Amino acid sequence: MTVFGPILMAILLIGVFWLGMKESNERFVLVIDENQGVLGELQDSDGITYDYQDLSFKDAQRLFLASSYTDILYVSPNITTVDAARLLFKKQPSATVLRTIEWRLEEKVEELKLLQRDISKSDFYKIKTSISIKPAKFTQKGEQMEIIEEASAVGFVFGLLIYMFIFMYGVQVMRGVIEEKSNRIVEVIISSVKPFELMIGKIIGVGLVSFTQFILWVFLTIILFSGLQYALFSDMFEAGNVMTQMQMTPEMMQDMAPHMDLAQESGNPDNLINKIPWGNALTMFAFYFLGGYLLYSALFAAIGAAVDSETDTQQFMLPITMPLIFAYMISIFIVQNPDGPAAFWFSIIPFTSPIVMMVRFLASGEGGVPLWEIGLSIALLIVGFIFTTWLAGKVYRTGILMYGKKVSYKELWKWLSYKG
């Protein structure tokens, strides 16, 4: 799976990308325009054909199901005041098709409004303005630190990966303990090493394997995805084909230009890819991934030692996985308010900090989270790992050689309270 996993992931990503861009069929749109031709006819696009008929909207609806039309576009007489039209369809169009029809209609309505006000199209585009606010944090040193809003999405992805891999490899530790216990292999091993040493060895062993496997997955997936993307879709991203593929007119491209600044060449220092502090982000990701894994895997190992089969783990899994699930859910709000009290506390608490601090760090921008808060979060995560490992060791020592008994929370408390 270390080799096959990235291949499968790259194929799935390319498949999703290809299917997402592919239209299921051609769109044949019946246009009912009650503006008596003032708007002018919409220009056909790649995969979208418009047909004008002198019918009422009610008549068109009666004929629709038996006709070859895929959609009905109804343009009311007051289109210039309501700025809305209605589209009926047999099979739901993609977001790309819907946006393309909107662009075409917007273009015609815009032209009509300009004509009514005696304004030329060229003059309109000269004065048309799109304002974008670039937020920057004013630091204690008097420096302006730019906030990259898109980077919060990268932080959220990192947080999601940490959540997935902590859970996946933590469960792997638990299953390994249960397997050794149920096969009675542990009785032989325990004669040579102490239970606590066995638990730590399993946690570190699986951790090193998981980290190695994760690094290989990341690099192999990126290489394979990039290669397949270039081989299959290179013609779609050539400069000469962009306008055709996106089905945009020059006016549409001009309208979208202010929002496409981040799509500049990769060598530009203002490019989004170059603005994200990848070195610090990857370093923090590696630490919080390993720290979170070590903390939770100790608890998973304790569960594995306390039960005889995987079916008995359900009553103990919820309290352990709840902080992980909650951290993932709260990260959605952390993205919007990375300096709020919730962001601070949940990035400090060891059970939620591996996910929340990763999201908060990128959402706040480099230097946005004070160094003392990052240091406190790291220190508490280390202390949390030591504490949970100590607790798990007490459960592991007693439960690893116990068979045939249903363990309750009361029984676990006795094991934790046992001195010796």
Unreliable sequence segments: 236-248, 255-269
Mean pLDDT: 79
Structural class: alpha/beta
Query: How many β strands by DSSP?
Result: 6
Q: What is the CA-CA span between the terminal residues?
A: 43 Å
DSSP strand content: 5-15%
**Secondary structure: helix percent:** 55-70%
Order of strands side by side in the largest beta sheet?
2-1-3-4
Mind describing the biggest β-sheet? 4 strands, mixed
Secondary-structure element sequence?
Answer: HEEHEHEHHEEHHHHHHHHHHHH
Number of helices, where a helix is a run of at least 4 consecutive DSSP H or I residues: 17
List the domain count as a whole number: 2
> What does the radius of gyration come to?
30 Å
What is the global morphology?
elongated
Description:
- Strands 2-1-3-4 form a 4-stranded mixed beta sheet, covered by helices on one side. A two-stranded antiparallel ribbon has the order 5-6.
- The longest helix is centred in the middle third of the chain and has 39 residues, at 195-233.
- 62% of the residues lie in helices and 6% in strands.
- The model is unreliable at 236-248 and 255-269 (pLDDT under 50).
- It is built from 17 helices and 6 strands.
- It has 2 domains: 25-127, 3-Layer(aba) Sandwich (D-Maltodextrin-Binding Protein, domain 2); 152-216 and 270-417, no CATH class.
- Helix 12 runs antiparallel to helix 15 (353-364) and helix 12 (278-306) runs parallel beside helix 16 (371-399).
